[in-house]
Amino acid sequence: MSEPLLEARDLRVHFPLGRGRVVRAVEGVDLTVRRGETLGLVGESGCGKSTLGRALLRLERATEGSVHAFGADVTHARGAALEPLRRRAAMVFQDPYASLNPRRSVGQSVAEPLDIHRAGDRAARQAKVAALLERVGLSADVAQRRPHSFSGGQLQRVGIARALALDPDVVVADEPVSALDVSVQAGIINLLMDLQAERGLSFLFVAHDLKVVELISHRVAVMYLGRVVELAPAAALFAEPRHPYTRALLAAAPVPDPRRRAPETPLIGELPSPLSPPPGCAFHPRCPLAEPRCRAARPPLVADAEGHATACHLVPVGNIRGPAGLEG
User: Fold this and answer.
1) Long-range Cβ pairs for the range 265-269 (8 Å, 24+)
2) How far is CA 155 from CA 91, 106, 210, in A?
3) CA pair distance 159, 106, nearest whole angstrom
């Protein structure tokens, strides 16, 4: 089994709103990003995907549970204790326009991690910026231009270059292609896959486009209302989804072949509010298969011998080996 780089252990991230109200964005998640893999993280908007990714990089604080990075517990780390994480992990943000300072040139933005960590002298940093821009498909000459003169796809390439500045081991990519035209998405996805092959990068790839996730991921975790409800190798999950929510997501995805029909009824209803999640299995109000026990008790996430984990009372799992996530 490959080396774990980022781990969430029973991680909870809550946001108090006052008057006793709390948004439970992440609620008891166990998850591991391994060396050299792409772990896809999918689910509807508002399910907690982005918050989980940010918490793994300590951009959001854990309310309970723990975050481990490169073998060290960084849940409560501050200042210099976070430097190894900041050097070895990076993030590509969803909105390429909002993630770059409009008053700074793109070269200055790419160089910022190098400046903060004092990586080499000024000449070495400028050379590194030029090489990074060229590697992501841009000319080194664009370093002096400001973000407003670029397209969305070009700005996302700048964001990827900035994420690579310190030669990280793992990158959290938060919806990196959702704001881009379909014609541009393929170029960004191919770039990420090429960089992984070249550098041995690991990715936590947060997305809602299941076709993109299927293409790029080694494993896939499905989130619903702050919890992981299914976790499996990508080929197994797309060939044999087990959780009713996963099956509904796949059924709702567009089918490009007009001769094919979705095998099941698409997902209906709205995601419940994380301010007042339903008792038991949070999916039971929308699940056509729900039974009384689904309303009474939350099913644990357990894995079979092949590493296919499901949190559902209705899914028999043979050869269960215990709680899933850290080894799954």
Assistant:
1) 267/44
2) 14, 9, 23
3) 9
Q: What would the DSSP string read from start to end of 122-165?
A: HHHHHHHHHHHHHHTT--GGGGGS-GGGS-HHHHHHHHHHHHTT
Q: Is the pLDDT of residue 182 over 90?
A: no
Determine the Cα–Cα distance for residues 5 and 85; give it in Å rounded to an integer.
10
- The pTM for the full model equals 0.91
Band (pLDDT 50/70/90 cuts) for residue 320 is very low
Residue 319 pairs in a beta bridge with: none
Q: Is the pLDDT of residue 13 over 70?
A: yes
**Rounded to an integer, what distance in angstroms lies between the CA atom of residue 250 and that of residue 252?**
5
- Identify the sign of the CA torsion 188, 190, 192, 194: negative
Residue 203 corresponds to which amino acid? Answer: F
87 close to 168: Cβ distance less than 8 angstroms: yes
Those residues whose C-beta lies under 8 Å from the C-beta of residue 124, and which sit 6 or more positions away, are: none
Q: Looking at the DSSP assignment, which residues form a beta bridge with residue 22?
A: 16
Q: From CA 180, how far away is CA 190, in angstroms rounded?
A: 14
Contact 49, 29 (CB under 8 A): no
pLDDT digits (tens, 9 = 90+) for 244-259: 999 999 988 776 666 6
Span 218-246, average pLDDT: 96
DSSP H/E element including 107:
helix 106-116
How far apart CA 124 and CA 105 sit, in angstroms, is 18
**Closest CA relative to residue 311, chosen from 233, 240, 250, 223:** 223
Note the pLDDT tens digit of each residue in 87-126: 999 999 988 889 999 999 999 999 999 999 999 899 999 9
Q: Which residues make Cβ contacts (< 8 Å) with residue 302, sequence separation at least 6?
A: 309, 310, 311, 317, 320, 321, 322, 323, 324
pLDDT at 270: 84
Q: Are 81 and 95 in contact (CB under 8 A)?
A: no
Interval 119-163: pLDDT, tens:
989 999 999 999 999 999 999 999 999 999 999 999 999 999 999
